Amino acid sequence: MEKDIGKINKNDTTDIVVRLDDFGGKKGVTIREFVTSERYTGFTKSGVKIPVSDFEKFKEMINSITEEDIKEEPEEEGEKLPEDQTTLDEEMPDY
């Protein structure tokens, strides 16, 4: 079972595709890059699969992002991370 949910254009040759699949007998949501070029057309190895068992956690994490969180601001040379920005070294919520 494969069902494409949607795609986002990344650049001239690459789209990010979100799909439902059951690859290897394991159902889940897959987010992968799809390339269209002279040398190769198809999915790349770049991507991630969210197992059905973790989908609710994933959805909760995505839905916790607000418009304010992703608001783009002009970059300045030598800009430091905002004080409230977390990195992988810091504590993150466990969903």
Description:
With 95 residues, the chain is mainly beta. It has a domain at 2-63: Transcriptional Co-activator pc4, Chain A (Roll). Helix content is 9%, strand content 38%. The protein has one helix and four strands. The chain has one helix at 55-63; strands at residues 2-9, 14-21, 28-36, 41-51. Strands 1-2-3-4 form a four-stranded antiparallel beta sheet, with no helix packed on it. A hairpin with a 4-residue loop joins strand 3 (28-36) and strand 4 (41-51). The mean pLDDT is 87.
Structure in a nutshell:
By secondary structure, the protein is mainly beta.
Write the layout of secondary structure elements.
Elements: E1 2-9, E2 14-21, E3 28-36, E4 41-51, H1 55-63
Antiparallel strand pairs: 1-2, 2-3, 3-4
CA-based shape = extended
- The run of helices and strands is EEEEH
Question: Which band does the percent of strand residues land in?
Answer: 35-45%
**What top-tier CATH class of the domain at 2-63 fits best?**
Mainly Beta
The helicity comes to under 10%
How far apart lie the N and C ends? 28 Å
What's the main sheet like?
4 strands, antiparallel
User: CATH H level of the domain at 2-63: which superfamily?
Assistant: Transcriptional Coactivator Pc4, Chain A
Total DSSP helices:
1
Q: What is the residue-averaged pLDDT?
A: 87
CATH architecture of the domain at 2-63, by name, is: Roll
- The gyration radius over C-alpha positions equals 17 Å
Low-pLDDT stretches: none
Alpha-beta content class? mainly beta
Number of strands: 4
> CATH topology of the domain at 2-63, which one?
Transcriptional Co-activator pc4, Chain A
Strand order of the main beta sheet, please? 1-2-3-4
